[in-house]
Amino acid sequence: MNRRGLALAWALVVCMLLGHNAYLWLGKRIVPDTDILALLPVQKRDPILQQSFTHMVEASQQRVVVLIGAADWADAQRASDAYESVLATRKDLLQGTELTDQMQNDWLAKFQQHSLTLLTSQQEVQLRMQPAEFWVDSALAKLYSPFSGPKLGAWRDDPFGLFGQWVQERAQETPVRPRDGRLFVANKDKQYVLLPLTLAVPAFSMDAQRVVVPLLEQAKAAAHAAVPKAEIITAGVVLHAAAAGEQASGEVSTIGLGSLAGIILLMWLSFRSFKPIALILLSIGIGFLGSLSICWLLFERIHLLTLVFGASLIGVAQDYGIYFLCNRLSADPKLDSTALLKRLMPGLALTLLAAVIGYMGLAFTPFPGLRQMALFSALGLIFAWLTVVCWFPLMISGGTLKSGALVRTYGNALKHWPLLRMNKATLSLVAVFTVLAAIGFSRLGANDDIRLLQNPPKHLIDDQIKLSMLLDAPTPVQFFLVRGANSEIVLQREEALKKRLDPLIAQQKINGYQAMSNWVPSAQTQDARRALLEEKLLKDDGPLTQLAEKIGEDKAWAATTRAHLLESGKLLTLNEFLKTPASEPWRHLWLGDVEGVTASIVALRGVSNVDLPLLQKTAAGLEGVQWVDKVDEISSVLGLYRQYMSWVVLAAYVVVFGLLFPRYRRHTWRVLAPTAVASITTLALLGFAGQNLQLFHVLALMLLLGVGVDYGIFMQEHPNRRNTTPWLAVGLSAANTILSFGLLGLSRTPALQAFGLTMLMGTALVWLLVPCFGRENTDDSRA
Amino acid sequence: MMKRLFLSMCLAACTAVSSAAAPIEKIQNMLAKPKMLCGRFDQTKQLSGMKKPLLSNGRFCVVNGKGVLWRTLQPFPSTLRLTRDEIVQFQGERVATRLDAKQEPTVRMINSVLFSLLSGDLSQLQSLFEVDGSADVKSWRVALKAREPALAKAIGDITLEGGAYVNNITLSETSGDKTNIVFSAIQTGETALLPEEAALF
User: Fold this and answer.
1) Domain A413-460+633-783 belongs to what topology?
2) B72 to A560: CB separation less than 8 angstroms, yes or no
3) Of the segments A99-103, A513-517, A561-565, which one has the largest average pLDDT value?
């Protein structure tokens, strides 16, 4: 074969890859998918459900909420002024919400025109149950008291106070009130100014995090300078994103630089040259870029998790280069590199095949995310492998590499390594191991909590909790989704749902609900309520006529008042309401027409985790009503992936065994056993440590199979114990893997920590175990 | 949104028991500011669309640090009690409506304004209202107009008259409803509060 031609052809392919990548990143500016639901099987996804999330979550994503509190309202206002004056300098980043008199003024005008159709459910019950005197008494009390509670317009517009109470119930959907041109909330100790801010830049962009967070800090400092005792509570997705970014970059600089320095030092001590590390990085880099290019061409998108998992392939991709380099180091310098490669080819080919087949197992799962990961991984390995095969022989010739003292000392250790023999000691060891592993396994739980993916700093969580207690705001990730053929049906279904939720409020399981039908009852309900009100209060000789007598007015007065009240009996329609400024805070609840179906959201206030199953049951049997819990859904995606991945790992062992069998025959088990024992031990150790199994442990076990099989093949390719070359390749590769992934065990993100810890224990164990499964008294016939 | 409703209540309550005026200092010096104050009120209400005015009378009490009690006796017994954390309306023995600060945060705000007024701190009132008044040796008169248009629209104009205590309040709402309250037989000190009234606090 023409080596040079092959190398040139590969160079051409690499140039194309580089060009395509440059176009993707710099020209198209591609952004990886971050929506974890994009990983769900397509048929499982529901466009209306999807839109409801987008509605609830994306709207809250751009929001930053600030509460500025002090014991005294005047102090809170002063602190708020100082805070806002800092924000005012960057209106391009953060925008406040203007409170206008117009908004406050017109708030009620719309509802007043329909006051006869708007009743609270309590009033509805009272109208059915209470006698006429009750209403006459209420009206008189209201009439004679100088300040008898909420009063809207003239007494005559609402003589029985029904509309006033309805408005009051609406007002209580939020504890936030306008006060002196600001928004105000309070608790027992403090009065707070509420500043709802909107980000003008995307919350997940680096710009937002780099500029907005310091700006908020600066504003906070200014507020504290004005009022030292002021309490500032801040919450927003951007703060979490910034904290996560900060943590990641902090870890990259400590863990990342630490491992890079370790790897470079190790390679230099082994080869006395920086050339090998450069070559290995080259093969890994080409592997990564190549798979990205092809994945993009095939899927036209790439998920962040794919990239994360793909990046972890370094552990496997490096093995090919290291194996070649170690053999180059120990081979006769006169031996041509091309000839050397030819000799190594069977082992190299097998390592690649085993890994690729293992990963392809993922492609047979129904999850698009896993398929993408499988393709990405397999392609990455193939590209890295081809780079080694096409380029390395030409780049490294005999005698380029020299070994150091470390390599010799390390190589000598192999002679003294224990070797497992078929004897009583081994059998009892196996028995003890089996028992211990079984105990460890039995302690292993499972955890698929979404919080594994991120763990925000404590002060952010504290602020979030304080804020949600003060504002009593509904959670954007758990709600009821209501659907129907048209808006009237949706409103009726909301009302049916609310009837089931009311007892939960009475039992204090939830604080309340927000729904469009609170403001605009269905036409059916409005009609029924108006009819009820007319019958119970306005008919001849009813409470209105009796009231007229008591205050010395005649029948004519009663007739005029009745006519006046009936004027405001027109039905309120949803479209009318949506046009008013009063609907602004509630518009997000109305999804409207989505693919021919009308949908809305009923949001809940004061939901505790304990009551989630109860809420799920509440929706049962109600047509068109669905309980939605994004937290739960993401957790179940993670759980499903964990289970599928576990089976894929097991299946991969079987497939790899079958693949290796033709070459190693009765010794095949020796290739796989170290990895299998290391994986089992790692799981048992996790069990003893009280850890819960999660997706990222399993992903690490998959990767461990990839690297472990490489080590097994290296050792079995050269079964002679006097040949230390494979042992050196295993040592270098394992040390690099530990340095790059094992150190992730130091990460504060639970998912990365689990991944790192598994890799750390697993790789170290495979490394230590692999010589134990060597063969006795063999010649190095294959070398 | 609810502010104007509650402030209108609050204001009525506040002005019923004390007063603020300009020149504030002079009026403030004139006011007695007792710890406990009770008396008789006579209320005349003229509502739009009604021929006859509605007359009522009863007793009112203001207890510093506790709250306000407003007892309508004639023609229709009903009691209103404002304390730090709630506003309760009794219809006979029955609680007709109860509004607490947990449900309605402005309750505490209303009461804090009320209490600061009782202790002679008029800054709260001035921050919400334009105060225009006059005072001679023994009496004073003040007109209040809300600074915020929305609030002004909801509660209209308020006039206070008094000497050592507030004697007269007039509320003129934009809807055309008009209320006048005259205070008399004012007593101060521990004995002012009747036993049945003390039981309500």
Assistant:
1) Multidrug efflux transporter AcrB transmembrane fold (1.20.1640)
2) no
3) A513-517
Q: Please tell me which of the candidates A141, A155, A180 has its beta carbon nearest to residue B89.
A: A141
Tens digits of per-residue pLDDT, A380-403?
999 999 999 999 888 888 777 777
DSSP per-residue codes, B4-32: HHHHHHHHHHHHHH----SSHHHHHHH--
Q: Which residues of B touch A552 (CB under 8 A)?
A: 52
Cβ(A181)–Cβ(A98) below 8 Å: no
With CB atoms and an 8 Å threshold, state whether B76 touches A144.
yes
Query: What's the ipTM?
Result: 0.76
CB contact under 8 A, B12 and A143: no
Residues of A in contact with B128 (CB under 8 A): 180
Reduced to 3 states, what is the DSSP secondary structure of residue A599?
A: strand
pLDDT, tens digit, for every residue of A498-515? Answer: 999 988 888 888 888 999
Q: What does the domain layout of chain A look like in residue ranges?
A: 1-30+289-402, 413-460+633-783
Q: Which residue has the tokens 């751009």?
A: A62
Greatest alpha-carbon pair distance for chain A in Å reads 124
Number of domains in chain B: 1
pTM of the shown model: 0.73
Nearest chain A Cα distance for residue B74, angstroms: 9
Option in B78, B109, B149 nearest A141 (CB) = B78
Q: Inter-chain contact B16–A146, Cβ cutoff 8 Å?
A: yes
Residues of B in contact with A181 (CB under 8 A): 148
**How close A157 gets to chain B, by Cα (Å)?**
10
pLDDT (0 to 100) of residue B114: 58
How far is it, in rounded angstroms, from Cα A665 to Cα A782?
Answer: 14
Length of chain A: 783
Query: For A678-698, how does the pLDDT look when each residue is reduced to its tens digit (9 = 90+)?
Result: 999 999 999 999 888 988 899
B117 pLDDT more than 70: no
Residue in chain B nearest A185 by alpha carbon: B105
Q: Which residue has the higher pLDDT, B110 or A351?
A: A351
Which residue is listed with tokens 């009745």?
A562
Query: Is A186's CB within 8 Å of B108's CB?
Result: yes
Which one-letter DSSP state was computed for residue A93?
A: T
User: Choosing among B50, B80, B115, which should be mutated to test the A contact, i.e. which has the most A CBs within 10 A?
Assistant: B50
Nearest CA of chain A to the CA of B139: how many Å? 24
- Residues A695-721 have pLDDT tens digits of 889 988 988 998 899 999 999 988 887
User: B94 lies in which domain range?
Assistant: 3-200
Q: What is the CATH number of the domain that holds B93?
A: 2.50.20.10
Question: What pLDDT, on the 0 to 100 scale, is given for residue A254?
Answer: 75
